[in-house]
Give the backbone structure.
Amino acid sequence: MREVAIVSAGMTRFGELWESSLRDLFAEAALEALAAAKVDRLDSIVVGCMSGGQFVGQEHIGPLMADQIGMAGVAATHVESACASGGVALRTAFLEVASGASDLVLAAGVEKMTDGADVTAVLATAADQELEAFHGITFPGLYAMIARAHMQANGTTEEDLAWVAVKNHRHGALNPKAQFAREVKLEEVMKSSMVSDPLRLLCCSPVSDGAAAVLLCPLEHAKRYTDHPVKIRGTGLATSTMALADRKDPAFLDAVQLSGERAYKMAGVGPADIQVAEVHDCFAIAEICCIEALGLVEKGAGRHAARTGLTALGGKIPVNTSGGLKSKGHPVGATGIAQAIEIFEQLRGGAGARQVKGARIGLAQNMGGSGASSVVHVFEGV
Amino acid sequence: MREVAIVSAGMTRFGELWESSLRDLFAEAALEALAAAKVDRLDSIVVGCMSGGQFVGQEHIGPLMADQIGMAGVAATHVESACASGGVALRTAFLEVASGASDLVLAAGVEKMTDGADVTAVLATAADQELEAFHGITFPGLYAMIARAHMQANGTTEEDLAWVAVKNHRHGALNPKAQFAREVKLEEVMKSSMVSDPLRLLCCSPVSDGAAAVLLCPLEHAKRYTDHPVKIRGTGLATSTMALADRKDPAFLDAVQLSGERAYKMAGVGPADIQVAEVHDCFAIAEICCIEALGLVEKGAGRHAARTGLTALGGKIPVNTSGGLKSKGHPVGATGIAQAIEIFEQLRGGAGARQVKGARIGLAQNMGGSGASSVVHVFEGV
């Protein structure tokens, strides 16, 4: 298997971007990534998008996007894994380069969520249609159940959840691409309206438009395109049951653990080696569960991590320095690539005010549904 | 890059399968493929499906299907390229095995189209939403324009189109899995109702439910699972403009040509080496255009191929021995895998009454939209 590197990145601002369509968003991010590497040709494009069909009436996303950037002809593939679509796109592109089939592959993610679709209903199609969605439950409800189970098992409190939001907004306030680039106070979070008990509005990620793209090539070619490439050392993809009720412990995200183990094994590292991480905080409770499942903290200890500063900038293992899904925004198909971009910048010293000093090894974890799919990548600055 | 083989296959009957849901269809095909190879574990699943979201309110197809066959945990990826989703799933699975990342990968395709969705409107989301679908054109209209352009350039007649249907139904009559396993007469086709001038009902593929799956592994492991593996010698994926009107010649499918050239090059063969082929006959005119673009006949000569028997069973280069999309049915996400299965069986001597004697090298070509994406695989019996 060939070694693979990321050599450039491009990303739109995340937010309610009324002036930009699905294809506009993709093109902005893709062309920025191509320009940064001074590249005007590609062998292949892999695009993550959860549901162009339901959100904006557009399937066949691969060729559409190739055409939109003037590259009709190039190979193009669309992958979907709900909110993990971006991370799975990165993995698919990685395997294409690793196999030797392609040398220059753009891995991108995009979603246009604010064009009038019933967003909560569309997102609910990522749950089990027969066992969950049909009966009316949506994702705030599913994650509220995860939160309740975590509270019961570990004594987690509403305030523990709120601290995750406070920390991630503090990070996001330093990110000019973030949808909500501003700090929030603990009491604001605790007083925000209840969405699905115990999850309050400020513990939930927003509805967003946006796109992100990274350019991959064999590591041995990387210096042609940048002085500071970042190597993809490991990839891990795993699944769990679709329905939350089918899991032994709803507060433990087994697909996250399994995807992490696979990525660590391939990378030849362990959780203790990770110096900066982006994890899937679609709801505050998700960040707590994810850092536990990835072994970044002990099982049951995740509830303390944000409050004590362990996972804050300046802490032992900064998590979601980008602001996370919570503050940066969550255009679902784009999220996994945006996470990879944050780690890419951190490992090449390009994260500006959010820079984790001396970070050399980092991780991005992207999740679909209530944890039925999870994909982890381990990166190293070279 | 590792060499890759198909070692087993499974497939539902194609048709209006009222008793089976999306997940039921997948499981039937997947479990048949696993049983045939006596395998009870997988490293990864790649599923092609055009639009679970729009057809049956279900996204997140990868983990759902892993869960449905009792394999929650395994890596699972869903790919979409409209009606080429199955072919792109095969390619994605091929690259995963070729890379060395996985040893046992199930490549599957599935679609459930008869559950009440407005099928023509859903399929139209594979066209360009802004330049085509928004203005009301659907695929029968787009292919009718391709047919008119082909008629104007080459003198193609309605009867030439009808002969494609007659030939493919003659083949499909020998296929117990086909949706319309019966012959049709030329005059029946010519008298069938006009769908979109010059395309009559019997020149259009039907609306179908179905699933298909093949098991891939490194060629060097193949004999563990079967005495008659089939090697994947080449894969080629290409795109064209999304909108038909943006192409220089609407009657020439340039993505089909390009995907074919890429697959031939990788396989080290040319069109003259192909002994049996499945091509994407969603409408009769598509088969004519595809065999021309793939170089199986001269440009402009495609119109004669079915009538003269060149592409019939017993002819020089039998095309769509399965019955094609026309007679076998076209559950869009499943089609590309079903095509691969027909060639798999032909190259291992398992095609029964449809067997092409002594076939050693074959090809499958699967297309999305009005030809905005096309994927070709070249296979060899070993």
Observations:
- Residues 128 and 358 of chain A are 43 Å apart (CA to CA).
- The domain at 4-119+208-224 of chain A is CATH 3.40.47.10 (Peroxisomal Thiolase; Chain A, domain 1).
- The first helix of chain A runs from residue 22 to 36.
- Chain A has two domains: 4-119+208-224, 137-204+232-381.
